[in-house]
Amino acid sequence: xxxxxxxxxxxxxxxxxxxxxxxxxxxxxxxxxxxxxxxxxxxxxxxxxxxxxxxxxxxxxxxxxxxxxxxxxxxxxxxxxxxxxxxxxxxxxxxxxxxxxxxxxxxxxxxxxxxxxxxxxxxxxxxxxxxxxxxxxxxxxxxxxxxxxxxxxxxxxxxxxxxxxxxxxxxxxxxxxxxxxxxxxxxxxxxxxxxxxxxxxxxxxxxxxxxxxxxxxxxxxxxxxxxxxxxxxxxxxxxxxxxxxxxxxxxxxxxxxxxxxxxxxxxxxxxxxxxxxxxxxxxxxxxxxxxxxxxxxxxxxxxxxxxxxxxxxxxxxxxxxxxxxxxxxxxxxxxxxxxxxxxxxxxxxxxxxxxxxxxxxxxxxxxxxxxxxxxxxxxxxxxxxxxxxxxxxxxxxxxxxxxxxxxxxxxxxxxxxxxxxxxxxxxxxxxxxxxxxxxxxxxxxxxxxxxxxxxxxxxxxxxxxxxxxxx
Amino acid sequence: xxxxxxxxxxxxxxxxxxxxxxxxxxxxxxxxxxxxxxxxxxxxxxxxxxxxxxxxxxxxxxxxxxxxxxxxxxxxxxxxxxxxxxxxxxxxxxxxxxxxxxxxxxxxxxxxxxxxxxxxxxxxxxxxxxxxxxxxxxxxxxxxxxxxxxxxxxxxxxxxxxxxxxxxxxxxxxxxxxxxxxxxxxxxxxxxxxxxxxxxxxxxxxxxxxxxxxxxxxxxxxxxxxxxxxxxxxxxxxxxxxxxxxxxxxxxxxxxxxxxxxxxxxxxxxxxxxxxxxxxxxxxxxxxxx
Lengths: 471, 290
Known about the structure:
The complex is a heterodimer. Chain A is built from 11 helices and 32 strands. Chain A is α+β, with helices and mostly antiparallel strands. Chain A folds into 4 domains: 1-41, no CATH class; 42-117 and 371-470, no CATH class; 119-218, no CATH class; 223-355, no CATH class. In chain A, the strands form 6 sheets. Chain A has an 11-stranded antiparallel beta sheet. In chain A, strands 7, 8, 25, 26, 29, 30 and 31 form a 7-stranded mixed beta sheet that branches. In chain A, strands 19-20-18-17-21-22-23 form a 7-stranded mixed beta sheet, with helices on one face. Chain B has 8 helices and 13 strands. Chain B has helices at residues 32-46, 49-55, 57-60, 74-83, 97-110, 189-202, 216-219, 239-258; strands at residues 5-8, 15-19, 22-29, 117-122, 125-130, 135-143, 146-156, 163-167, 181-186, 211-215, 229-234, 264-269, 272-277. The A-B interface holds A 2, 4-5, 8, 12-21, 24, 26-29, 141, 175, 179, 182-183, 186, 188-189, 191, 427-429 and B 1-3, 5-8, 10-12, 19-21, 50-51, 54, 57, 172, 218-222.
């Protein structure tokens, strides 16, 4: 065994234990020797905001006068944590602590890649289709990676990841969870399935795919709201409209809006539980058919027409809340609805419903707690950083992207993964996710909270580093 | 210390295996259950693989000694077998490491039977599995920054090719020559890997002042190339010089083809491309029909 020279480093990232000379990388090209220090070689990301926004950008008038509304003037360059490397446990100063003179105020950005054992994603899926009952398990490749959580307006919500799936279950569960989170955070596709629910293909910023069908639109409103929005356009052209919806199915003639327009009763009887006139709950089970129900044949939600009220020739439009499903019927002499082509003057309203449905998308928020030892990388008095963030003296960003910091203890934040630079998320085999994290504050505030003043590097020096990637 | 990792690629169809410097992209075609089984086998074989190699690394970094004991790891044995016929040139089993890993995983995946096709791509060194009647289309790119196809070939199940490997100055390993890329089609990936390394070494202009070289050990103390001078920079070359350097590589490739060690090769240096193949062999035809 050769004795390594003084300026070489022995990499301990894998069993090969490469002996790396200064300025060289190991056999993987991922780790290198930078001036005698083992260094992760993915380049630091520098966001040139001014460049990205174009030279023609007119500066904010307020910048002339000093404060531009930012808590800390950020200048034109943001150094992100992507590629900064990490130290774990974080007793050493965070990999980069960058200072910049911005309009006379010395600002300090603590740049690190944080390892998050406590992290997950919240996924908002714009659909009224049934993806699975709330609280049901969400799986990836058979492993439990999260659950269906409280639905929101026009959307189904998933909560994925978290420490219990990452490290609380089997090794494979942790690995699959980590891979799922990484894929979603990196803007890649994740294949998921919900127990007693649907198969999902999800990708941040893309329409969700539910049981193999691309979900194109959100619903325009619930069935009742749809009646309210379109009653005026319908009442001259059709006797009755039933808007099929998993939440509230609306019936035009009974609905407040129909009454207001003096629409006469039609003898239409809808199954389900009547909430208020013209508004019905539970007309069917949740599913991937009409209006987020399991209905494929809309007549299945109707009882026989009331012979006392209904008359032959009565016209009926049935439509889902996205306009994707619709059918038009005329009652025959036996008061049975007969499918009939949609008249042109109704087609417009059907198309208008479709038009008013927003494109369905999938949004992914990464949520993590930068607690514990990570804060020690930024300051010798970790709780001071938490307090400083809490009092908004310190701005937290994730790869330069704005984050929402939860009130309360710790530094628990959420970030839209599509705003984080590509490739910023990584992993360690713990398993846990690695994400960039920056704390920006005034230099004097940084000193006051016990910052690693000795480790501060002027921003020009970081920009001059050979491994810096500009974006 | 990081352990071996497995992940599906974003589209879900491929498997990505990584441990230390080994980065494999694996894809199999067949019934879903057979594919799943093949991926599971690949992952199980992959996990201990790097540790097995590391255990025999010092011997793998030296030229084969006829008296030496056989290697105990199956990947190490593949490496040794791949370089054995090239014993008259300087070569160590490390010249075949990437191809041998690809062969090993590909073999393991197909043990269960049932797959239609599969490949294991180890950083450009590719092991193939083809059931009867199937084929693969292969393309060659010399310099990643200039992703023009140097050539393409259709490899059919009745062609004697199950390995494709590329070597050159721009990859992770050192080269003794100046080729931008040498791609070899051979019976398996380990043999293709070793041959590509040697052909790329042969594409050279010894003593040319525009070529800067450094002892390998200066760059990597553990390199199997020891004090040998590896290429670090190639300055401006005249077009006749480019042709002469390529000709040396073509001679080496022709010898290998004559000895039945490779099926075909395509050599690229600057804007020139040379091909070596028997008339009946699958040829890496130029993408633009040249």
